[in-house]
Specification:
single chain; about 325 residues; Rossmann fold; 5-stranded parallel β-sheet; 4-stranded antiparallel β-sheet; Immunoglobulin-like; 10 helices; 2 domains; alpha/beta
Length: about 325
């Protein structure tokens, strides 16, 4: 009995440990990863020291791992364009070179040095806004998808200076969120994720390993959201179960909203049933089909969009 109890405890501990390691080392994979319409994930990370990496730590390594684990058979290309100490004004001097001939996504994470400069009276919030507007417009003109990140707080627990600077961080973040709505682009809300958990820091502002991993999750989620909204490939699954008896299901992945016609034909090509004839929005839709009235045999189902861009035909088998 004691041996059994000990073995059970070891098994439970091992199971818990493996689960914990999985949670710590990687992000969960979104379903949209299976339907990404591109051959590669291209991400430019642009900013100052957090983008460059500090003391050998950076979020890009974790972000790359997340994509490699989830986007199977896709090329993952995440580039760093970070220069420590730079303000948005200095970033403007090199943005053209960073985005030249690039495709995909651009993560813009800078402004902490602006907050320091604004507090010192050497910059204004209006200047930071104008600079960020230019960074966004240049990215959009290159047909990149911008993700603008909020700034993490400075650790102000023992610093009157950083308490003042955090007032500027808050103002900059509010301004960034306003620009995101204005340009209809995307947010990487690092500030909301890190909050004031200074155990995620290695110094007054830079993330440690846990902080960088958290930032990678924020950006991974943001990019996956964009992919689900804008970069899915039209997919019609094989019905499941197949063969089916009384009911079967088909998944339809829509890259954009469109009217969809779903029809079932017998093997001679005679129309048996119109399952669906309505608009579907972007994303995944599961269509359930009642097979009770169909005779056993082989059928053809055809899914087409009213735009004529997408048509798929597959076989299904009905048994009793």
């Amino acid at each position: 009995m004691r041996f059994r109890a000990l073995a059970l405890c070891i098994a439970l501990l091992l199971c818990f440990s493996l689960k914990t390691i999985a949670q710590i080392t990687g992000a969960s994979c979104p379903e949209s990863a299976k339907y990404f319409s591109k051959d590669s994930v291209n991400v430019i990370t642009f900013g100052a020291s957090t983008v460059e990496g500090v003391n050998g730590l950076n979020f890009q390594t974790y972000l790359t791992t997340n994509f490699v684990n989830c986007y199977i058979n896709k090329t993952i290309n995440i580039q760093k364009y970070g220069v420590s100490g730079e303000t948005t004004a200095q970033g403007l001097l090199r943005i053209d070179n960073a985005i030249a001939d690039k495709t995909g996504f651009i993560v813009i994470l800078m402004g902490a040095n602006d907050a320091l400069q604004i507090d010192a009276g050497k910059m204004t919030l209006a200047q930071t806004e104008a600079n960020m507007r230019t960074l966004i417009v240049k990215s959009l003109n290159q047909n990149l998808v911008p993700i603008v990140c909020t700034l993490q707080n400075f650790d102000d627990r023992t610093s009157a200076l950083y308490r003042r600077v955090n007032l500027q961080v808050r103002a900059i973040n509010d301004m960034y969120k306003r620009l995101i709505k204005e340009y209809n682009i995307y947010l990487g809300d690092i500030n909301a994720a890190m909050r004031r958990d200074f155990t995620l820091y290695q110094d007054a502002v830079h993330p440690n390993a846990r902080g960088n991993r958290l930032i990678s999750f924020v950006l991974f989620d943001a990019i996956n959201k964009i992919i689900a909204e804008r970069f899915l490939q039209f997919t019609v699954s094989q019905n499941y179960p197949n063969p089916g008896k009384s009911q079967t299901s088909v998944d339809i992945i829509m890259p954009e909203a469109d009217k969809v016609e779903f029809k079932i034909y017998n093997i001679q090509g005679k129309l048996i049933q119109t399952v669906l004839h309505e608009y579907l929005n972007t994303g995944k839709h599961t269509i359930q089909i009642n097979l009770d009235y169909l005779n056993p045999g082989v059928y053809i189902y055809r899914v087409a969009t009213s735009s004529g861009l997408y048509v798929t035909t597959k076989k299904m088998v009905v048994i009793r």
